Amino acid sequence: MAKKGAREIVGLICSVCKSQNYVTERNKINMEGKLSVKKYCKNCKKVQLHKETTKLK
Ligand SMILES: [Zn+2]
After folding, report:
1. pTM greater than 0.85
2. What domains sit in the chain, N to C, each tagged with a CATH number?
3. How far is the CA of 56 from the centre of ligand 1 (A)?
4. Distance from the alpha carbon of residue 1 to the mean position of ligand 1, in angstroms
5. Which of 11, 23, 32, 41 could lock 48 by a disulfide, CB 3.0 to 4.6 Å apart?
6. Cβ neighbours of residue 15 closer than 8 Å, sequence gap 6 or more
7. Taking the CA of residue 12 as centre, how many other CA atoms within 13 Å lie in the half-sphere pointing to its CB?
8. How far is the CA of 21 from the centre of ligand 1 (A)?
9. pLDDT tens, 13-49?
10. Residues, Cβ < 5 Å to ion ligand 1
């Protein structure tokens, strides 16, 4: 088992098409609120704002 710490695996979903394109680690200590990043969405074929989701596919 991996050491259980402040880190949490979250998915990043495209805010436009809702497809989950990325999985990242989130540090609960440093991060407050919802994570959102601009990343390339292969479904939309352009850079879109991605938001975190705890529901991993
Ligand atoms: Zn998209």
Report:
1. no
2. 7-53 (2.20.28.120)
3. 16
4. 34
5. 41
6. 36, 48, 49, 50, 51
7. 18
8. 8
9. 999 999 999 998 877 666 567 778 999 999 999 999 9
10. 14, 16-17, 41, 43-44, 48
> For residue 28, how far is its CA from the centre of ligand 1 (angstroms)?
26
Q: Distance, CA 37 to ligand 1 centroid (Å)?
A: 13
Long-range contacts of 37-43 (CB under 8 A, 24+ apart): 37/12, 39/12, 41/14, 41/16, 41/17, 43/14, 43/17, 43/19
Tokens standing for residue 16: 């436009």
